[in-house]
TrEMBL record:
TM stretches of this protein: 6-27, 39-56, 62-79
Organism annotation: Leptospira ellisii
Keyword NAD (UniProt): no
Compartments reported by the entry: Membrane
InterPro entries: PQ-loop_rpt (IPR006603), SemiSWEET (IPR047662)
Membrane-protein topology: Multi-pass membrane protein
Cellular component GO terms held in the UniProt record: membrane
Protein name: SemiSWEET transporter
The keyword Transmembrane helix belongs to this UniProt entry's keyword annotation: yes
GO molecular function per UniProt: sugar transmembrane transporter activity
Alphabetical UniProt keywords: Membrane, Transmembrane, Transmembrane helix
Length: 88
């Protein structure tokens, strides 16, 4: 593996796992009061576009990172929508 690909894997790992503490907090605690629904909708849309881009150019670090980022952020958004519905 060359250094550029390695750099891509490290960058994708760090940006992806940055969502893990929020996922754990939302799943364990259930509170999403201070989370912006619109931010997550826009962010997930961007992640899906990055994922498509990664597939189109065949870049595995981009694909892998965005699959996991999509999963983590979708969990957060799911709980946010569920809690918003419950509060209304």
């Amino acid at each position: 593996m060359d250094s550029v690909t390695f750099l891509g894997y490290i960058a994708s790992l760090l940006t992806t796992i940055s969502f893990l503490p929020q996922v754990i907090r939302v799943v364990m605690g259930g509170s999403t009061k201070d989370i912006s629904r619109n931010m997550y909708v826009v962010f997930i849309t961007g992640v899906v576009l990055w994922l498509i881009y990664g597939f189109l150019i065949g870049d595995f670090p981009i694909i892998l990172a965005n699959i996991f980022t999509f999963l983590f952020t979708s969990i957060i958004l799911f709980f946010k929508l569920k809690n918003d519905r419950r509060e209304n």
